[in-house]
Amino acid sequence: MASHIILPKEEEEEEEVEEGLGVAVEADHDSPEPPRYRHLQPAQKALPFSATCVRISRDSYPNLRALRNASATSLRDDDAAFAKLDEGDYGYVLDDVQHLTDYLPELPTFPNPLQDHPAYSTVKQYFVNADDTVPEKVVVQKNSPRGVHFRRAGPRQRVYFEPEDVKACIVTCGGLCPGLNTVIRELVCGLSHMYNVNDVFGIQNGYKGFYSSNYLPMTPKSVNDIHKRGGTVLGSSRGGHDTHKIVDNIQDRGINQVYIIGGDGTQKGAYEIFKEIRRRGLKVAVAGIPKTIDNDIAVIDKSFGFDTAVEEAQRAIDAAHVEASSAENGIGLVKLMGRYSGFIAMYATLASRDVDCCLIPESPFFLEGEGGLFEYIERRLKENNHMVIVVAEGAGQDLIAKSIPVADQLDASGNKLLLDVGLWLTHKIKDHCKSKKMEMTIKYIDPTYMIRAIPSNASDNVYCTLLAHSAIHGAMAGYSFTVGMVNGRHAYIPFHRVTSTRNKVKITDRMWARLLSSTNQPSFLSKEDIMEAREAERLANRLPVPAGSSEHTKKHSASVLSNGEK
Ligand SMILES: Nc1ncnc2c1ncn2[C@@H]1O[C@H](COP(=O)(O)OP(=O)(O)OP(=O)(O)O)[C@@H](O)[C@H]1O
Ligand SMILES: O=P(O)(O)OC[C@H]1O[C@](O)(CO)[C@@H](O)[C@@H]1O
Ligand SMILES: [Mg+2]
């Protein structure tokens, strides 16, 4: 990494810049030549921000080492060996993804077939610069280090597979989500139309399908219409991840590109598969495409299907509002998905404006007494005669467990099965109103599976298409990664970054404050709750501590870290 500033060159300045003055010549992405930089001593040229930049030296960042270790310390110790951290100037850290050449250094490369593609070859700078990276944090201060970056997604000039040698497979795992079929479709079509890859198979019914079902040949024709349907044409499942059996099958069948669509559990599985592939020294690229309606995957801006879910949730909220407002003291209660993260509930509430109270897993609440939910319901009904409550499925689980003690049950993947907070709340509210001799009507609507099962909307369709294309470009270029949008740009993210934490609504952030001010609901939080939330956030944002220390262990056991507010 150069130790001085590299600025993109303004086109009109090209002739003016003298050799050795510190401005990079913009890469010619259509030529096979690697980008050429002319480095200059920044002080010699008065560029708009170079004066500030040059004063910042590496030594300005005593925490640079800690920053560089950001990923490594959040890894399980046995995974730390896979972290690829590259340090640059001014506190820049590249948290890089795995590449085939990390363990197969002699692999040949080939020109990207896109350069002869009638559609793409006309695009100026269609290929991304090999050094392009995307910052994890875009809000910075004057003296901030440049921070952690991820490799930018997109087509490279050289690829590591010849089209006729590629044998690709696609698998979908975990719960349903709008857009699954669009991603499948665009993987099949993108491989064929962009890279002339026509040997593509679907793995049926999730991970276990690798070793227990027939593989389904897929062509652009066979997937042509599937994006108009909800669900996944491949089927999905929980459990059944047997790394060795899966990789045995990948190896036996000569598969060399594996596209894995699924949530946090699925991405953990993808990481295990990658590690085993690498251990066996196989020339196989693993591309994870994060899917979850809960939007709880770390690092990425949002997961596909989330917008569709929020939009569809409006229909249930509207119905609840109609029911509530057509009755005397009417209450409409809507349950939305969100096992650990209340994003759908929060966004659906903010979008609707008819919601009087939103309850999410991240924000504890209580029923009885001053400042509790019952008091708020009584007040709201007095003021407005009706009210709408939105509750995320993971909210209030501790309260339910206290009133209905039952042993925890797990699904096949080991996820805790939730008790029905909507039904429980309905009964609690009814009992309370009865005890107060209050006439009321409550209608409980549970649209959760209806929302999850619809096809994706237009914007999610485009998002799914771009994710699929980014995944294909990355796999063709020999990387193994989870693909995702980070601050609006597609990036290749190391598996460990998306599997070590979970994205959660931060109740100390402005988005949750906006929600509270839009519904006028009480925060239900005690001073201790607020302190606890702030402390959790402080710990989450703190620069990492060395692996192995007791603080490191404590941080690992805290299940929740979260994305920054947008
Ligand atoms: N730690 C893990 N290691 C390997 N495989 C895993 C791990 N966790 C989950 N899996 C596998 O990933 C698949 C999907 O996991 P899970 O049911 O938790 O759904 P998910 O991918 O998190 O999606 P969602 O929660 O959005 O429905 C399952 O087949 C499961 O066996
Ligand atoms: O009933 P299933 O299919 O196991 O899935 C339910 C879970 O899946 C999700 O839709 C995604 O994780 C959660 O919101 C929900 O708790
Ligand atoms: Mg999950």
Q: What would your notes on this structure say?
A:
Catalyzes the phosphorylation of D-fructose 6-phosphate to fructose 1,6-bisphosphate by ATP, the first committing step of glycolysis. It is found in: Cytoplasm. Residues 168-473 form the Phosphofructokinase domain. It is a single chain. This protein is elongated. The model is unreliable at 1-64, 66-73 and 543-566 (pLDDT under 50). By secondary structure, it is an alpha/beta fold. The chain contains 18 helices and 20 strands. Strands 3, 4, 5, 7, 8, 10, 11, 12, 13, 14, 19 and 20 form a twelve-stranded mixed β-sheet that branches. A four-stranded parallel β-sheet has the order 16-17-15-18, with helices on both faces. The longest helix is centred in the middle third of the chain and has 20 residues, at 306-325. β13 (257-262), α7 and β14 form a beta-alpha-beta unit. Adenosine-5'-triphosphate binds next to α7. 6-O-phosphono-beta-D-fructofuranose (F6P) is lined by residues 175, 263, 292-294, 337-339, 393, 411, 452.
